[in-house]
Amino acid sequence: MFAPFALVANLASDVYMILASPTQAPLTASTSYHSLYDVQAHRGGRGNTIENTLPSFAWGLIDGATTLELDNGITKDGHVVVWHDEEITPAKCQDTTPAYPGDPDFPYVGKYIANLTLTQLRTLDCGSKRQHGYPMQLTYPGTRISTLQEVFDFVSCADPQHEILWNIESKIDAQHSNRTFGVADFVEKQYEVFKNTSYKNSITFQSFDWRTLIAMKQLDSSITTSALVDEYISPPLSYNACDAHGFYSETALMPDNSTSPWLAGLRLDDFSGPTLGEQVAQAARAIGADILSPSAESHQSPVPDPDMEDYVPFTTRRMVEEAHRLGLLVKPFTVNRMNIVDQLLDWKVDGIITDYPNVVRRLVKQKGLPAAPKLPKQRVLRCLQEHLEKQRR
């Protein structure tokens, strides 16, 4: 066992000393994919295929993603599974039959993953329902929720050189401890899978709950960590206008004096800023993260596109510049509008997390940036069929 909160306990007093230390060294490339522009297939590319499933990762590979982005939950019996939501939502999955006759937990839809076993989850059909917000999704009826190990096994078949990169998120709830397992369980169980895969050196571990990033670094300092952030998990903010370049006025988008349960005890107003974006970058550096992964858009923006009047970004030029000054890479999420991609590329972000990796990849290539190759479709689909059949046995 390890002490996941040891660093957190002393963090407030160490913040300024950490920020004053030399800029951390750039990430070292362990495979050729590290030298390519990082187009990340969010949940495998949920704009194109049902999310966080073997089919979605298959099409992410076929579409030429550099990185497969995915989420992890922990089942009641301790298995690391690939799924985004804390609970099984009826919009994405449907019940079939109980895991065993008379199971009092049945039906399983509507229940938390932490309260269901892997055997119970295996009965769910999570491939038949096309999401209303993604009308072009391919569906794969009968698709099951996979374990993280099963996803690694499938991708190893489709990617025999083990070149693809990974961005794996711990879906822990920092506000409601009864909905998910805690920090130690997530970090220990995920790392147990990480350390036994050929992809270990290609994994980024990301989370909105920064306690898990600190704990993972304590367990293995070689694991790349990425600090996810948006205004839902930072303290409540006040909003005023910002200019077209994302430079906020002195009164725009500033944190109040409260502490967020998601930021490992940090208060953004303890950092020098002067803008919120710079404070966020400084806070991510303070916990030793390698990457800052902010929401591209502000949830408070009245319009969705930077070409529209009154658009408000969450990721700003100043945030990106400050993160780079501190030695952090910047990879915003979830970017599904090309005008936002254009803006972020102009600000020199290091990667784009998107539901449409095939579309963003085209723009990246148009800009002259190096893009990942598309893996052979026939091989990927053959491996997909083999591994889907294996799950159904």
| Count of discrete structural domains | 1
Query: From N to C, what is the helix and strand string?
Result: HHEHEEHHEHEHEEEHEHEHEHH
Q: Give the CA-based shape.
A: globular
Number of strands: 11
CATH architecture: Alpha-Beta Barrel
Radius of gyration: 20 Å
How much of the polypeptide forms β-strand, as a percent range? 5-15%
Q: Distance between termini? A: 35 Å
The assigned structural class equals: alpha/beta
Q: Describe the biggest sheet?
A: 9 strands, mixed
**Residues in helices, as a percent range:** 25-40%
The overall average pLDDT, rounded, is 89
Q: Give the CATH H-level superfamily.
A: Phosphatidylinositol (PI) phosphodiesterase
Q: What is the CATH topology assignment?
A: TIM Barrel
CATH class reads Alpha Beta
Tally of helical segments: 12
Low-confidence runs: 1-31, 238-255
InterPro entries: GP_PDE_dom, PLC-like_Pdiesterase_TIM-brl
GO molecular function: phosphoric diester hydrolase activity
Domain GP-PDE: 37-364
Protein name: GP-PDE domain-containing protein
